[in-house]
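Page 42, continued from yesterday. The earlier attempt failed because a stray header line got pasted into the input along with the sequence. Redoing it now with the clean sequence only.
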Amino acid sequence: MPFNITSTGGSGGGAPGPRGPQGIPGADALWNYVGEYNGGTSYAVGDIVTFDGQLWYRANANGGNVGDTPLEGFIWDLLAAKGEDGTGGSGGLVYLGNYVSGNGYVADLAIVRGSDNNLYIAKANGGLADPVGNTAEWDIFSNNAGGSANTADFVFTSEEGRSIISLPGDKGMRIDAGIDSDLYVTAGDDLYIQTLGQGDDIHLNAADDIRFTTNNEDSANEVIQEWRMDSEGRLQLPGYGYIQNPREETISSGTFTITAQDNYLNDQSGLNQATALSLPVNMDTLWFVGNNYLTSPVTITFADLTTTTTISIYDATSQGLPAVIFQWDDGQRNKTYEETFPVTISAVYDNISYGNSTLVLDPNDNGNDQQLIIDATAPNHIHVRAGGPMDYSNAELILGGERAGVHVSDQAGDVWVQTKKEDYNWSWQNVNPAGGTTYIVGSSMAEPDIGDFTIQNGIKYVINSVVRNEQEEQTSYTAIGSNGVLLGFIPYSYYTFTRDNGNYTWRFEAIDDAPALVLPPEEPVIVNMAVPGDITLSAYNGIKIGASSGFGIEFPDQTIQTTAYIPGAGVNGEITRWTPNFTATGLAFTGSGATHPTYNSHYVKNGRMVSFFIEIDMATVTNFGTGQYKTELPFAPLAGTMNHFQSWCLVDENANPDNTGHAILQADHLANTSVLDLHYIKQSGGANSPVMEALFKQGSPVTLTTATHVYINGTYITAD
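This time it went through. Structure tokens are written below.
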């Protein structure tokens, strides 16, 4: 045990003794990494091994016995315990500072700094030689040679008063803030983010929105303006406006169908050894010309239900023929006007949609259709429209101001101006108690009909099926949406359907190298100014200049006249023959042209006043059908009006007209339609009961034969 020797005498005053000799050097630190433990190897004190994912230090030689498996206790000490298994991680790296000769290192784990200031990562295990130039045992991890103040990969320099942090070589850099933490990059003045390589991009990625804000330099109290790119692909402008990017291209199959009532001359002629059909030049017929998106042959269906397919479709205007030619090659055709028209032309096509690029200007954010939509609905076709539901917005789109001109041109150099005709609308209650996709109304003669539409929740639904039940006095409908889904109808709710009556089109174009204005409908008049100061009027069926007051000048047909004449009271005044439709459920007849049942019908039109006479000759009827007989007026009546016209039936000219050979009839029409429904007059009950109308059909009130004639006459005001 330690002890002191002391003296009770006085203290000595001698000098300190000399310094003792230096002790012998101590032993080297026992620290030698030898890699993975091997049960057949003898280990000495200071050896370090890895075993079972942990790091062990040999603390006692124990005679160097073989088979001393690392366990905590007398022989081995645990230096680094095994952690829990991670998921999705990568191998770790350990920076050990400057290289020290004689230390043991672990491959792909140890990183040291060499004497050349570069960082090296070990390629082998154990006591490795100096890493500089030693490519067998080390790889350069980061080349920092020549750098000044630096930490790991970064090199810090200054240039023209600016501090620069750089990464030498072709290395990437990433700056991460912690989860749910913010990262700020600020500057006292301007902040620049730029790429130095040509064609290099700047990528901004966000899990939600990317926002840009600017402070108002004029006042600290004003609102900070913010531009925001949201996760819906829109650029939100300060306020409530936004720009929406177009979606990806989508392709769906569609069918385009048009119906023509007559040829381009509008002369009610049929086909005579024809191999082509010549129709008016309009937006519908031109749709087929050069259309590269058709996926089926163009099919022509004539009025007699015969069909053909085209081999060529072209616009013959440049050849002096103002018509679109639909040509076939399966033989010549001879048809009357009634066998030819109305003619239906249809084709299947790829409907390519690019979505809508939308600029929304809505300062009050109240959904008031204040939108400007740029809609690329097809290649080489851009549709600019005001906002609201697609193709059914009441918002106005005005190009130009009160004192500014508007210049519009298509590829042909023409300008088209369209005005929409007035729509017809009908509202009926759905009496179907089961609801579902069938809409039932309480009338067998109800409008609307196939092709009419309704808008529900911004989706356009078009009637695609109509079934009329005269016995139940009901009509059943289904309507399919633009999304391909049938409309579901709520029991006892009212639905309004609309009939689109088309457009009037004014066309500005060049004819014979002179400006011309083609007026609606369907090119009846061309205003040509070929000679300065002169105005030329031309039309395919003659020119009539008149006024509603009853005075007019007429140049009939295409004859050349040097004088004009007054056609009499009214604008026209001539007697015109026409062939109205004659229909009924199950009705069939063989007559056409001059033998058509209604061929011998005429009208006289003076301004908007029309007097007409219809004769229905049953001589060619082969089946009188079971439904109510119907025919039509020569012109649409004044909107909203409903008329009754006198009519009678001569059942058999050989019978006594005061007995069974003469029946009194009435012909009437509903508002906004030209269809005439035929009724007979009967007493509703006993004596003194009122006289009522009933449906005029075969056997009610008389049995019709091929000797029967029906006559209708009247006068009414037309819509135009």
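Notes: The chain has a mean pLDDT of 78.
Reminder to self: strip header lines before submitting.
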